[in-house]
Amino acid sequence: MKGSAPVAPATRAFLAVAALGAGLLHAALAPSAPLPLLALFVAVAAAELTWAVLTLARERPPLFGLIPALALAPLGIWAALATAGATATSGTVLTLPLLPMGAASLLDVAVAGVAAVILRRGRPVRHAASALRFVSALLVSACAVCAVTIPALGATDAGVAAVTVHHHH
User: Fold this and answer.
1) Which of 16, 99, 140, 153 is 20 to 30 Å from 27 by CA-CA measure?
2) How far apart are CA 86 and CA 52, in angstroms?
3) Helix 67-86 and helix 35-57: axis angle, to 10°?
4) Could you tell me the CA-to-CA distances from 100 to 56, 67, 164 in Å, in that order?
5) Which residues, including other chains, have CB under 8 Å from residue 160's CB and lie 6 or more apart?
């Protein structure tokens, strides 16, 4: 089956770290969202975080054939909300923070794009990949995703609350 092909360890490292970053951002956006959107953010975050862990743990990421579409679903939801808010006559527009949603969307697009390229190529995986290559890919991926995710997390209400908490000793 084309959608369940093994993925190279270095590529899985990138996919997992990018999905982890997007999941963390969606989880951080949840507390400040209205109840229906909160439930959606929690569900999307849980799915992304679970998929990230399973992708690192397995040679064949789960639902890999559907990942290009599934990874773009949060971006589609954000676009639908923006369109509905822009055309609302009630005067109340639901606005989501641009930096966190943009960063999460960027990570989701990266996951979808890489998965689509892998599925399109359909090449067998080289099993002779070295541990050094995997660790290097994991390190570079983690640094790149952190560079995008950490500032975006700071722009969420959860990130602001984490910084402004005062401890009394």
Assistant:
1) 140
2) 33
3) 160
4) 24, 21, 18
5) 154
Q: Tens of pLDDT along 6-45?
A: 788 889 999 999 999 999 999 999 998 888 888 999 999 9
Ramachandran area for residue 52 (φ above 0: left; ψ -120 to 50: alpha; else beta)? alpha
CA atoms within 13 A on the CB side of 76: 8
Task: Determine the Cα–Cα distance for residues 122 and 116; give it in Å rounded to an integer.
Answer: 10
CA–chain centroid gap for 145, Å, is: 10
Q: Find the farthest-apart pair of alpha carbons in the chain and give their distance in angstroms, rounded.
A: 60
The model carries a pTM of 0.85
Copy the structure tokens of residue 154.
């700071």
